[in-house]
Design a protein that fits this description.
By secondary structure, the chain is α+β, with helices and mostly antiparallel strands. The protein folds into two domains: about 40 residues, GTP Cyclohydrolase I, Chain A, domain 1, CATH 1.10.286; about 140 residues, GTP cyclohydrolase I, C-terminal domain/NADPH-dependent 7-cyano-7-deazaguanine reductase, N-terminal domain (GTP Cyclohydrolase I, domain 2). The strands form two sheets. A five-stranded mixed β-sheet has the order 5-2-3-6-7, sandwiched between helices. A two-stranded antiparallel ribbon has the order 1-4. A hairpin with a 5-residue loop joins strand 2 and strand 3. The chain is elongated, with a radius of gyration of 20 Å. It starts with 14 loop residues before the first helix and ends in a 5-residue tail after the last helix.
């Protein structure tokens, strides 16, 4: 059972088999015939896909940031825009697709590889999520796991639970952001970082 939403959990025993049975039961509840041609392999395919979609549950994404490189002369912010991600809203288990824009100020000694930032983002995204929580988790990884002196994270995303059901507001974009460290109280510096990131909705 996942009580700590920041930590990895262990994949339950017989997880794929249990998911296959659950998918088959859902098809039956819909009035479908899971034994007909076209649906016979569907429970297996869905279970395999879900294990991939939610693979971030079984890792500590912040660990990617522990791979670092010496950079004693790095005194300016590291800024990365447009990191793509796919997550799933924990309320409806429907896709959330978007981009992460992030910036951090190194501790003056070390930086991490750019690919490690993307791996960390996708590790947290591949879980049942809330956009607000995802934003906070990425920020906390930069501050605590990378030991950055300051960090700012912006996420722009489209939620299928809004575009495919209910109000069906296609292409609506939700923006969240978090800031911590030296930039939290320094309004001028925070505005400078925002201007450098330049997300499309701000």
């Amino acid at each position: 059972m996942n009580d700590n939403l920041n930590k990895a959990i262990t994949l339950p025993e017989n997880a794929q088999e249990r998911m296959q049975k659950a998918v088959k039961e859902m098809l039956l509840a819909l009035g479908e015939n899971p034994e007909r041609e076209g649906l016979q392999e569907t429970p297996k395919r869905v279970a395999k896909a879900w294990l991939e979609f939610f693979s971030g549950l079984y890792e500590n994404p912040g660990d990617h940031l522990k791979t670092r490189f010496s950079s004693e002369n790095c005194k300016t912010p590291v800024i990365v825009r447009d990191i793509p991600f796919i997550s799933f809203c924990e309320h409806h288990l429907l896709p959330v697709t978007g981009k992460v824009h992030l910036a951090y100020l190194s501790n003056g000694k070390e930086v991490t590889g750019l690919s490690k930032l993307a791996r960390m983002v996708n590790g947290y995204a591949r879980r049942p999520q809330l956009q607000e929580r995802l934003t906070k988790q990425i920020l906390e990884a930069l501050i605590h796991d990378l030991e950055a002196k300051a960090a700012l994270v912006i996420i722009e995303a489209e939620h299928a639970c809004m575009s495919l059901r209910g109000i069906r507001a296609a292409h609506s974009c939700t923006t969240t952001f978090e800031v911590a460290g030296e930039w939290e109280e320094n309004l001028a510096k925070r505005q400078e970082i925002f201007s450098l990131l330049k997300p499309s909705s701000l």
